[in-house]
Fold these 4 entries.
Entry 1:
Amino acid sequence: MKYIQISVIVTREGEYYLSKCPELGTASLGATEQEAIDNALDAALVYLNTLEDLGECDRALREKGIIVREGPSIGQAMRCPPSGQVRTAVVPLPVNA
């Protein structure tokens, strides 16, 4: 399986949680921290699938300096004070990427 490893940064913004993926430039939000993370991963997949549909996935990842890997991997969470959290996530790439 081809995949990339990205960061998801989650911060509290009022009554919502904001999630950002700095590597891809995507963002989302949610009512809970986990919902924000899930929505950020969904946004990343939509972005990658759209790039693949346009035939631009490999080029865009290369330009962003994102390394495409193959094989199994495990993401990990890192705590960031005061109210944010950074998690790494493994995102599978579209089949043709």
Entry 2:
Amino acid sequence: MGFAPGSPISIFLDNWNLWPNFKDMEENYFIPLLGENLLNQTLKIAQKLRSEGKYVETGTEITTVGKALSYANKKQFEKVVILGDDEMQKNSYKVKD
């Protein structure tokens, strides 16, 4: 399940302090949605990471890299997967720590 920064779900979790505690998890990832045409590939990457036992949150609203990194930092994600148009053309993605 994914949701975007500022969505009703994320606001609810913020207000009630219900975000998961990532400190107990080995690795956790945030994968923002950086373009409408990137949704399917974003979900495929999330599925792959989850199958490896990683915690993954995906964005559901299109955002910018800057906003995504700020959100991930605020929520203390260890890694952010960047999948933009340039990465899609190269059939790759970037992982930022």
Entry 3:
Amino acid sequence: MEEGCVNLDFIQTLIYAAINSVQPENFIPANAALSEGKLCIQGKTFELADYGHIYVISVGKAAYGMALSLDHILSGFVTEGIILTKHRPEIFDLDTK
């Protein structure tokens, strides 16, 4: 590449990587994990047995994706939750009791 030229493919790759990294289905699992009844969020561990109920509250444009991703990680530990967003997906596939 000549000096002063911009590599548009590289810039596009960076933009897509940045957008992809903050998508709820990528961001939440990268920062939260469940193992043996313990929820670890960015290095902080919560023993879920210590809590009588787990409630998920999610607000904003990415609320549905964030709640869905967390619900998949918690797989059955969520007592109840609420999603507040203007952006309603066509299909809700949250685990429900």
Entry 4:
Amino acid sequence: MIYRVNKERINEEDCQQLYQELTRILNTGEDIILDLSKAKYICPSGLRTIVMSIKVFRAKGFDFSIVNANSDLVEIIKATRLDDMLLISEEDKKNMSR
């Protein structure tokens, strides 16, 4: 299932909603693709929410992928080593190697 983040900024106050949406998808029994095409910024709490969700999805045997991350978010993903935990699209992998 694709979940599109529809905000430019994921701030602390958005994290609970993000967690609830990711949990709802987990309960459907489907893999998730998190589309970050509109997101320009994710606060540390948002990154923690994503990391926690990745671990829960993986523990239950589901895949968690991120697509369409902009270059700033790609840098954050690389710096926090989230790229080691994620399935990343080929296009996003190319962006990460730049």
